[in-house]
Specification:
Length: 248
């Protein structure tokens, strides 16, 4: 996907998130995030948007804590969120393609990283807000969903901080059936070390989980059940993922 496509998805999903949060009410529970209220969700996403904006807008080259000023009370919270979201979209749209700043996953460019990361961050939490509002989540585009699975497997869980580890090595195949294999087929090698992931290989896997890209995206990001997925082989590997792979 192109940077402009990620920015457009971010624009849409941020608006949907705010609208769903307003319908749900700030005291509403957020089932995918146990213990959270909608207030917590909006605060979290608004803080993350402002944090990301600083790196792109100011070219900051060092990591910083995820912090930002917050509104004084609930009455201003949704307006505060919308302002921060609009600012992030504007900064990403106007940034030069060759701008430099800190980023924390491998990417073709810092701008591309932040557009992609904030698009997926916001999409996942948009689903949280829609579930909190009692709505069926807005459909996720298959190509975008496959990209989000790739970011999760080859980005987040290739880092040393990933908890997806097992002393007994095994392989977990993830296959999105509605996108081409080069975009939607991953073989994850699970061991005592961070995941090593290959794309579109023919090797047999100890466990295979397959489904549409959108269903896989929401399940692997801990936002939907696994009942819509087909699972074959050693299901203990999928159980390991479900225990250790969730990211809020």
């Amino acid at each position: 996907m192109e940077t402009a496509e990620f920015i457009e998805t971010l624009r849409t999903d941020g608006t949907l998130l705010a609208d769903a949060a307003e319908r749900a009410g700030l005291e509403g529970a957020v089932p995918p995030c146990p213990g959270w209220r909608v207030r917590d969700l909006v605060l979290h996403q608004g803080i993350v948007h402002r944090w990301a904006t600083r790196f792109v807008a100011e070219g900051r080259m060092q990591p910083e804590p995820i912090t930002a000023g917050t509104p004084a009370g609930d009455a201003e919270l949704l307006a505060w969120f919308r302002d921060g979201h609009e600012r992030l979209v504007s900064v990403l749209e106007s940034a030069p393609p060759d701008m430099e700043c800190w980023h924390f996953l491998r990417a073709d460019s810092p701008l591309g990283f932040w557009a992609r990361r904030q698009a997926h961050e916001t999409a996942v939490h948009r689903v949280d807000a829609e579930i909190a509002a009692g709505r069926t989540p807005t459909a996720v585009d298959p190509v975008f969903a496959a990209d989000g699975i790739d970011e999760l497997l080859t980005g987040f869980h290739a880092r040393t901080k990933s908890r997806v580890r097992n002393e007994i090595p095994g392989t977990l195949r993830v296959r999105a059936v509605d996108v081409p294999a080069e975009r939607g087929d991953w073989l994850a090698h699970v061991s005592a070390d961070p995941l090593i992931v290959e794309h579109a290989v023919e090797d047999d896997a100890d466990c295979t989980v397959s489904g549409t890209a959108a269903d896989l995206y929401l399940a692997l990001w801990n936002r939907a059940p696994y009942e819509n997925l087909q699972v074959t082989g050693d299901t203990s590997l999928l159980a390991l993922w479900r225990r250790t792979g969730a990211i809020t």
